[in-house]
Amino acid sequence: MARRGWVGENRGFFSILLEVDRQRLGLRGALTDVASQSSPIIHFDHATFGFPGVVALEDISLEIQSGEFVGVIGPNGSGKTTLCRAVLGLMAPLKGHLRILDCACDELRCHHRAKIGYLPQKGVVDRNFPVTVLETVMMGRYGALGLFTRPSGKDRKIALDALAHVGMEGHRDSALGLLSGGQQQRVFIARALAQQPQVLLLDEPTTGLDITTQHNVVELVQHLHEELGLTVLLITHDINMIRSRVDRLVLLKTRLYAAGPPADVLKPDILSQVYGKDLVITEKDLVIVEDYHHHH
After folding, report:
1. Which of 106, 115, 141, 207 is most buried by a 10 A CB count?
2. In what order do the strands lie in the sheet with 95-100?
3. Stretch 260-271: mean pLDDT, rounded?
4. CATH code for 2-265?
5. What pLDDT is stored for residue 279 in this prediction?
6. Are 68 and 264 in contact (CB under 8 A)?
7. Is the pLDDT assigned to residue 278 strictly greater than 80?
8. Is 174 helix (H, G, I), strand (E, B) or coil?
Protein backbone atom coordinates (compact mmCIF):
# COMPACT_ATOMS: atom_id res chain seq x y z
CA MET A 1 0.00 0.00 0.00
CA ALA A 2 2.82 2.39 0.83
CA ARG A 3 4.45 1.88 -2.54
CA ARG A 4 1.19 2.33 -4.45
CA GLY A 5 0.43 5.55 -2.58
CA TRP A 6 3.91 6.91 -3.19
CA VAL A 7 3.69 6.26 -6.92
CA GLY A 8 0.39 8.09 -7.11
CA GLU A 9 1.61 11.11 -5.16
CA ASN A 10 4.92 11.37 -7.01
CA ARG A 11 3.83 10.48 -10.54
CA GLY A 12 4.28 14.05 -11.80
CA PHE A 13 7.86 14.21 -10.56
CA PHE A 14 9.07 10.89 -11.92
CA SER A 15 6.95 10.38 -15.06
CA ILE A 16 9.23 12.34 -17.36
CA LEU A 17 12.28 10.54 -15.91
CA LEU A 18 10.68 7.21 -16.77
CA GLU A 19 9.72 8.46 -20.22
CA VAL A 20 13.30 9.54 -20.92
CA ASP A 21 14.78 6.31 -19.53
CA ARG A 22 12.45 4.13 -21.61
CA GLN A 23 13.57 5.90 -24.77
CA ARG A 24 17.23 5.48 -23.81
CA LEU A 25 17.14 1.68 -23.76
CA GLY A 26 19.44 0.02 -26.26
CA LEU A 27 21.50 3.16 -26.83
CA ARG A 28 24.74 1.98 -25.20
CA GLY A 29 27.71 2.59 -27.41
CA ALA A 30 25.67 4.51 -29.95
CA LEU A 31 27.32 7.84 -29.25
CA THR A 32 30.69 8.98 -30.47
CA ASP A 33 32.82 11.17 -28.24
CA VAL A 34 32.26 14.74 -29.33
CA ALA A 35 33.70 16.53 -26.32
CA SER A 36 36.81 17.54 -28.21
CA GLN A 37 34.95 18.80 -31.25
CA SER A 38 34.63 22.52 -31.83
CA SER A 39 31.06 22.32 -33.16
CA PRO A 40 28.23 23.36 -30.80
CA ILE A 41 27.04 20.67 -28.42
CA ILE A 42 23.46 21.96 -28.85
CA HIS A 43 22.36 23.71 -32.04
CA PHE A 44 18.85 25.03 -32.73
CA ASP A 45 18.55 26.12 -36.37
CA HIS A 46 15.35 28.11 -36.99
CA ALA A 47 13.54 25.43 -34.98
CA THR A 48 9.84 25.68 -34.13
CA PHE A 49 8.16 23.45 -31.53
CA GLY A 50 4.58 23.00 -30.48
CA PHE A 51 1.41 20.98 -30.67
CA PRO A 52 -1.45 20.87 -33.17
CA GLY A 53 -2.68 24.43 -33.43
CA VAL A 54 -0.29 25.74 -30.77
CA VAL A 55 3.24 27.08 -31.26
CA ALA A 56 5.23 26.96 -28.03
CA LEU A 57 8.62 28.07 -29.38
CA GLU A 58 9.03 29.70 -32.75
CA ASP A 59 12.04 30.08 -35.04
CA ILE A 60 14.71 29.45 -32.40
CA SER A 61 18.33 29.74 -33.54
CA LEU A 62 20.76 29.12 -30.69
CA GLU A 63 24.16 27.48 -30.24
CA ILE A 64 25.50 26.19 -26.92
CA GLN A 65 29.17 25.26 -26.84
CA SER A 66 30.65 22.35 -24.93
CA GLY A 67 31.53 23.39 -21.36
CA GLU A 68 29.22 26.43 -21.22
CA PHE A 69 27.03 27.26 -18.23
CA VAL A 70 23.81 28.71 -19.67
CA GLY A 71 20.80 29.98 -17.75
CA VAL A 72 17.36 29.96 -19.40
CA ILE A 73 14.88 32.57 -18.16
CA GLY A 74 11.52 33.96 -19.24
CA PRO A 75 7.97 34.57 -17.98
CA ASN A 76 5.31 31.89 -17.58
CA GLY A 77 4.35 30.32 -20.88
CA SER A 78 7.51 31.59 -22.58
CA GLY A 79 8.64 28.15 -23.74
CA LYS A 80 11.17 27.17 -21.07
CA THR A 81 9.68 23.71 -20.51
CA THR A 82 9.31 23.22 -24.26
CA LEU A 83 13.02 23.99 -24.68
CA CYS A 84 13.75 21.45 -21.95
CA ARG A 85 11.67 18.74 -23.63
CA ALA A 86 13.26 19.51 -26.99
CA VAL A 87 16.77 19.07 -25.58
CA LEU A 88 15.68 15.76 -24.05
CA GLY A 89 14.51 14.64 -27.47
CA LEU A 90 10.89 14.38 -26.38
CA MET A 91 9.67 16.93 -28.94
CA ALA A 92 10.68 17.00 -32.57
CA PRO A 93 10.81 20.39 -34.34
CA LEU A 94 7.79 21.21 -36.47
CA LYS A 95 10.07 23.35 -38.62
CA GLY A 96 13.81 23.85 -38.76
CA HIS A 97 16.39 21.59 -37.16
CA LEU A 98 17.90 20.65 -33.80
CA ARG A 99 21.23 18.87 -33.36
CA ILE A 100 22.55 17.70 -30.00
CA LEU A 101 25.85 15.86 -29.53
CA ASP A 102 26.07 15.50 -33.30
CA CYS A 103 22.66 13.79 -33.33
CA ALA A 104 19.92 15.11 -35.59
CA CYS A 105 16.71 15.40 -33.56
CA ASP A 106 14.25 16.01 -36.37
CA GLU A 107 12.79 12.60 -35.54
CA LEU A 108 12.28 11.13 -32.06
CA ARG A 109 14.87 8.38 -32.45
CA CYS A 110 17.87 10.30 -31.22
CA HIS A 111 20.69 8.64 -29.34
CA HIS A 112 21.92 11.65 -27.41
CA ARG A 113 19.60 11.24 -24.43
CA ALA A 114 21.94 8.83 -22.65
CA LYS A 115 24.47 11.67 -22.38
CA ILE A 116 22.06 14.17 -20.82
CA GLY A 117 21.69 14.14 -17.05
CA TYR A 118 18.25 15.54 -16.25
CA LEU A 119 16.92 17.03 -13.02
CA PRO A 120 13.15 17.67 -13.28
CA GLN A 121 11.22 20.09 -11.12
CA LYS A 122 11.20 18.93 -7.53
CA GLY A 123 8.19 17.01 -6.30
CA VAL A 124 7.12 15.83 -2.87
CA VAL A 125 8.70 12.53 -1.81
CA ASP A 126 6.69 10.28 0.51
CA ARG A 127 8.60 9.98 3.78
CA ASN A 128 7.48 6.36 4.14
CA PHE A 129 8.55 5.05 0.75
CA PRO A 130 11.26 2.40 1.32
CA VAL A 131 14.03 3.54 -1.02
CA THR A 132 17.56 4.45 0.03
CA VAL A 133 19.78 7.21 -1.26
CA LEU A 134 22.07 4.76 -3.06
CA GLU A 135 19.13 2.95 -4.66
CA THR A 136 17.82 6.28 -5.94
CA VAL A 137 21.17 7.20 -7.49
CA MET A 138 21.51 3.72 -9.02
CA MET A 139 18.38 4.53 -11.06
CA GLY A 140 20.62 6.86 -13.04
CA ARG A 141 22.48 3.83 -14.40
CA TYR A 142 19.41 2.25 -15.97
CA GLY A 143 19.44 4.61 -18.94
CA ALA A 144 22.86 3.26 -19.91
CA LEU A 145 22.29 -0.35 -18.86
CA GLY A 146 18.69 -1.02 -19.82
CA LEU A 147 15.98 -2.16 -17.44
CA PHE A 148 16.85 -5.86 -17.76
CA THR A 149 20.61 -5.62 -17.19
CA ARG A 150 21.77 -6.21 -13.65
CA PRO A 151 24.03 -3.40 -12.33
CA SER A 152 27.61 -4.46 -11.71
CA GLY A 153 30.14 -3.46 -9.10
CA LYS A 154 31.37 -0.83 -11.55
CA ASP A 155 27.89 0.71 -11.70
CA ARG A 156 27.74 0.81 -7.91
CA LYS A 157 31.10 2.60 -7.84
CA ILE A 158 29.86 5.15 -10.39
CA ALA A 159 26.81 5.80 -8.18
CA LEU A 160 28.97 6.17 -5.06
CA ASP A 161 31.29 8.56 -6.91
CA ALA A 162 28.25 10.62 -7.93
CA LEU A 163 27.18 10.82 -4.28
CA ALA A 164 30.68 11.94 -3.32
CA HIS A 165 30.52 14.74 -5.90
CA VAL A 166 27.42 16.16 -4.19
CA GLY A 167 28.65 15.56 -0.65
CA MET A 168 26.10 12.87 0.20
CA GLU A 169 28.26 9.73 0.35
CA GLY A 170 27.71 9.52 4.10
CA HIS A 171 23.95 9.15 3.55
CA ARG A 172 24.04 6.31 1.03
CA ASP A 173 22.01 3.94 3.25
CA SER A 174 19.61 6.63 4.52
CA ALA A 175 15.94 6.59 3.53
CA LEU A 176 15.37 9.18 0.81
CA GLY A 177 12.08 10.35 2.32
CA LEU A 178 13.69 11.26 5.63
CA LEU A 179 16.18 13.71 4.12
CA SER A 180 15.67 17.47 3.97
CA GLY A 181 14.55 19.06 0.72
CA GLY A 182 18.07 20.28 -0.01
CA GLN A 183 19.58 16.86 0.66
CA GLN A 184 17.01 15.20 -1.59
CA GLN A 185 17.87 17.63 -4.36
CA ARG A 186 21.56 16.72 -4.00
CA VAL A 187 20.62 13.05 -4.31
CA PHE A 188 18.63 13.71 -7.48
CA ILE A 189 21.57 15.64 -8.93
CA ALA A 190 23.75 12.62 -8.10
CA ARG A 191 21.22 10.45 -9.94
CA ALA A 192 21.74 12.61 -13.03
CA LEU A 193 25.53 12.44 -12.60
CA ALA A 194 25.39 8.64 -12.40
CA GLN A 195 24.52 8.64 -16.09
CA GLN A 196 28.02 10.07 -16.70
CA PRO A 197 26.50 12.83 -18.83
CA GLN A 198 28.11 15.46 -21.00
CA VAL A 199 25.17 17.82 -20.48
CA LEU A 200 23.43 18.56 -17.18
CA LEU A 201 19.89 19.86 -17.71
CA LEU A 202 18.16 21.28 -14.62
CA ASP A 203 14.54 22.43 -14.56
CA GLU A 204 13.91 24.91 -11.73
CA PRO A 205 16.32 23.18 -9.30
CA THR A 206 15.74 25.70 -6.46
CA THR A 207 11.94 25.73 -6.42
CA GLY A 208 10.45 24.82 -3.03
CA LEU A 209 13.72 25.28 -1.13
CA ASP A 210 14.58 27.89 1.50
CA ILE A 211 16.86 30.74 0.43
CA THR A 212 20.03 29.31 2.01
CA THR A 213 19.46 25.90 0.42
CA GLN A 214 18.76 27.57 -2.93
CA HIS A 215 22.17 29.23 -2.83
CA ASN A 216 23.81 25.95 -1.80
CA VAL A 217 22.22 24.06 -4.70
CA VAL A 218 23.27 26.68 -7.27
CA GLU A 219 26.80 26.73 -5.82
CA LEU A 220 26.90 22.94 -6.12
CA VAL A 221 25.85 23.12 -9.78
CA GLN A 222 28.54 25.70 -10.48
CA HIS A 223 31.11 23.51 -8.71
CA LEU A 224 30.11 20.45 -10.79
CA HIS A 225 30.28 22.55 -13.95
CA GLU A 226 33.84 23.57 -13.14
CA GLU A 227 35.07 20.29 -11.65
CA LEU A 228 33.60 17.89 -14.22
CA GLY A 229 33.63 20.16 -17.26
CA LEU A 230 29.92 19.64 -17.81
CA THR A 231 27.82 21.69 -20.17
CA VAL A 232 25.05 23.03 -17.92
CA LEU A 233 21.63 24.24 -19.03
CA LEU A 234 19.73 25.62 -16.04
CA ILE A 235 16.10 26.70 -16.40
CA THR A 236 15.01 29.06 -13.65
CA HIS A 237 12.74 31.90 -12.61
CA ASP A 238 15.36 33.24 -10.19
CA ILE A 239 17.45 35.62 -12.26
CA ASN A 240 19.44 37.03 -9.34
CA MET A 241 20.49 33.59 -8.12
CA ILE A 242 22.33 32.70 -11.33
CA ARG A 243 23.29 36.01 -12.98
CA SER A 244 26.82 36.06 -11.53
CA ARG A 245 27.45 32.35 -12.16
CA VAL A 246 26.41 31.65 -15.74
CA ASP A 247 28.40 32.32 -18.89
CA ARG A 248 25.30 33.35 -20.80
CA LEU A 249 21.59 33.93 -20.30
CA VAL A 250 18.91 32.90 -22.77
CA LEU A 251 15.71 34.96 -22.50
CA LEU A 252 12.59 33.40 -24.00
CA LYS A 253 9.16 34.75 -24.79
CA THR A 254 7.86 32.17 -27.25
CA ARG A 255 10.77 33.29 -29.41
CA LEU A 256 14.41 33.75 -28.50
CA TYR A 257 14.21 37.31 -27.21
CA ALA A 258 17.85 37.75 -26.17
CA ALA A 259 20.97 35.66 -25.59
CA GLY A 260 24.38 36.70 -24.34
CA PRO A 261 26.38 37.65 -21.25
CA PRO A 262 24.09 38.50 -18.29
CA ALA A 263 25.02 42.19 -18.42
CA ASP A 264 23.80 42.38 -22.03
CA VAL A 265 20.55 40.51 -21.42
CA LEU A 266 19.53 42.00 -18.06
CA LYS A 267 18.94 45.52 -19.30
CA PRO A 268 15.79 47.26 -18.01
CA ASP A 269 14.47 48.04 -21.47
CA ILE A 270 14.82 44.41 -22.60
CA LEU A 271 13.37 42.93 -19.41
CA SER A 272 10.42 45.34 -19.28
CA GLN A 273 9.40 44.37 -22.81
CA VAL A 274 9.41 40.68 -21.85
CA TYR A 275 7.99 40.74 -18.30
CA GLY A 276 5.86 43.90 -18.48
CA LYS A 277 4.02 44.83 -15.27
CA ASP A 278 5.37 41.77 -13.43
CA LEU A 279 8.89 43.21 -13.41
CA VAL A 280 10.44 45.22 -10.58
CA ILE A 281 14.08 46.38 -10.62
CA THR A 282 15.32 47.64 -7.26
CA GLU A 283 17.86 50.37 -6.57
CA LYS A 284 20.44 47.63 -5.99
CA ASP A 285 19.77 46.28 -9.49
CA LEU A 286 17.92 43.20 -8.22
CA VAL A 287 15.41 41.81 -10.69
CA ILE A 288 12.10 40.75 -9.14
CA VAL A 289 9.49 38.93 -11.23
CA GLU A 290 6.05 38.36 -9.78
CA ASP A 291 4.61 35.49 -11.87
CA TYR A 292 7.18 32.73 -11.65
CA HIS A 293 5.43 29.95 -9.73
CA HIS A 294 4.57 27.70 -12.68
CA HIS A 295 5.90 27.76 -16.20
CA HIS A 296 4.82 25.91 -19.32
Report:
1. 115
2. 54-64, 42-51, 95-100, 103-104
3. 92
4. 3.40.50.300
5. 75
6. no
7. no
8. coil
